[in-house]
Amino acid sequence: MAKVIMIQGTMSNAGKSLLAAGLCRIFHQDGYRVAPFKSQNMALNSFITREGLEMGRAQVMQAEAAGIEPSVLMNPILLKPTNDTGSQVIVEGEVLGNMNARDYFAFKKTLIPKVKSAYDRLAEQNDIIVIEGAGSPAEINLKADDIVNMGLAKLVHAPVLLVGDIDRGGVFAQLVGTIELLEQEERELVKGLIINKFRGDKTILDPGVEMLEERTGIDVVGVAPYLNIQVEDEDSLTERFSGSQEVKLLDLAVLRLPRISNFTDFNPFEMIPGVSLRYVSHVSELKHPDLIFLPGTKNTMEDLLWMRSSGMEAAVKKAAAAGTVIFGICGGYQMLGETLSDPDGVEAGGTIPGMSLLPMETVFTKQKTRTRVDGTFCQVGGKLSGLSGMPLEGYEIHMGQTVRKDGLQALTEICDTVAGASKEDGAWREQIYGSYVHGIFDREEAAKALVTSLGAAKGVDMSEADAVDFRAFKETQYDLLADALREHLDMEKIYRILEEGVEM
């Protein structure tokens, strides 16, 4: 069975996902077969495996860092919030159903055998497992039935590295307070502390590190710097949403919907010179972009109603009337049509009018479409005519089917790589475009074609503004991450913790 180490944090967004990815990369570079694991993930960013199963993107990112194919074994439970008190529950890549928080809290204990089975299968196939926890292990109201932090560590005998976020302040209180709230047997599992996201002169921090070790009796195994590594984010805590609102030669605006999902679709545009990618939450932030992206969402109908009540829908339709390019992906694509109907109550129930920017209708069904695809853009007109014939690859995750009307043309011709069948996807008319495919711009040819076409329509030469091969770019980022962690973490001590494990 594999050796195991677990990364837990003092809070959400302490940097667990990135540190776990970095350790995966280091172990991979050192010649080990390594795999990530997170028993339960709550996120709206998800991914479809080659088998057509759904899992969280954080473990996909960590699998990439480990140099292996993502598998649902790495994330057996995925919770996708549908509202403030409920989530869609996905187990072993399949939708189990929607549950409110109280019902799921009572139900999740029955999933422990599935969690253990997934972990054991991974452990049989690999030398090392890097586990990521969730939130904080010191949530005293949730500890009794924990299956993702100390409960999991005890189940699989995992030594724990506890991570605190110094960037948000109070890191010593975070770490000491978390340790103090743990039971004695849980404290004994914590074999090392990490201070994360540090900026400045470490010598000023050193006295605090010594006091922290004296107070807790646990070694600090590293002070990791604040890293600007461009890899995919787990959820809506991403710093991308609060990034620069600077407008460059070409300005792309992404609507930050309340239930935005799979916003990683737009990451490739962040790296193209002369292009600004802004996330906007209010009409006042929209300004006059060259293109507006309507992203994926976990609840298309409710987010469309939010757009309607906030004035964002009117602003987008006004921009479209003035010639601005509108591009919807997944839920954003569904919004562009004339009606959205939900006869089975999959989302909000009933029927509401869409934005009526494209003549099509969407009906939500209980069955979720989950598949990987590849293909090409069809012959496309309008301001994005340069997309014609460009290759694409990605995946579909959506409830509902959309039917085009009045001779509306498809945007892409794709092959379902799971079922092996070809089909048309999406639609376009004049400057309005839409597709169900996530990752549609991950291929550098597609991203550059969009930017070049948009620039030509504006009279701006973007032909020299090269896009990047996003997959190859991410490989360089994982190597940079590993290099930084090797420099700032005591890897000799971490390997020793890995080898010694824990006695239960």
Total count of strands: 26
Q: Kindly state the mean pLDDT as a whole number?
A: 93
Shape: globular
> Looking at the chains present, what oligomeric state does this protein adopt?
single chain
State the helicity in percent bands: 25-40%
Give the class from helix and strand content and strand pairing. Answer: alpha/beta
Distance between the termini: 16 Å
Reading side by side through the largest sheet, how are the strands ordered?
2-9-1-10-11-12
Number of helices: 15
Largest sheet: 6 strands, parallel
- The residue ranges in which pLDDT falls below 50 over 5 or more consecutive positions are none
Strand content: 25-35%
Radius of gyration: 23 Å
Descriptive account of the structure:
It is a single chain. With 504 residues, this protein is of the alpha/beta class. 31% of the residues lie in helices and 29% in strands. It contains 15 helices and 26 strands. The strands form six sheets. A six-stranded parallel sheet has the order 2-9-1-10-11-12, sandwiched between helices. A six-stranded mixed sheet has the order 15-13-16-18-26-25. Strands 19, 20, 21, 22, 23 and 24 form a six-stranded mixed sheet that branches. β7 and β8 (94-100) form a beta hairpin. α1 (16-29) runs parallel beside α2. The protein is globular. The model has no long low-confidence stretch (mean pLDDT 93).
